[in-house]
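Morning!

As promised:
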Amino acid sequence: DSCIQFTRHASDVLLNLNRLRSRDILTDVTILVNRQQFRAHKTVLMACSGLFYTIFTDSLKCNLNAISLDPKVDPEGFAIVLEFMYTSRLTLKESLIMAVMNTAIYLQMDHVVDTCHRFIKSSD
Amino acid sequence: YEGGVNTIKEMGRSVHEIPRQD
């Protein structure tokens, strides 16, 4: 008996999900951050964020097709975290790292928060 | 250097784990 593991599978599938997002194929939710709107797939958001997991497993909220985030969330920070969800790459510009970290805290993404903390401490 | 920026490889867990059942 054998088993073949395609080691690139996870990243190849994630790249295709990001292609679906950029072509707005089967996206099923709009995230409103202040005045900016972001289309996404609920399943990808739930797989990455504790907050979205809680929202979309709540029978009263799982059918919503638009979610407004707290106005304290920075749209640029959210855009970077959303891009991370779909690419595994977190862009850390000096001017935005706090916005990114605060967005990750709000979205309950502890591993990203911890990594941002370590990055900030190491660059101090 | 990947894509012109300094890329740091983080080997740890990236996102939460969804429980098998709630």
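The interface with chain A takes residues 5, 7-8, 10, 12-16, 18, 22 of chain B (CB under 8 Å).

Hope this helps with the figure draft.
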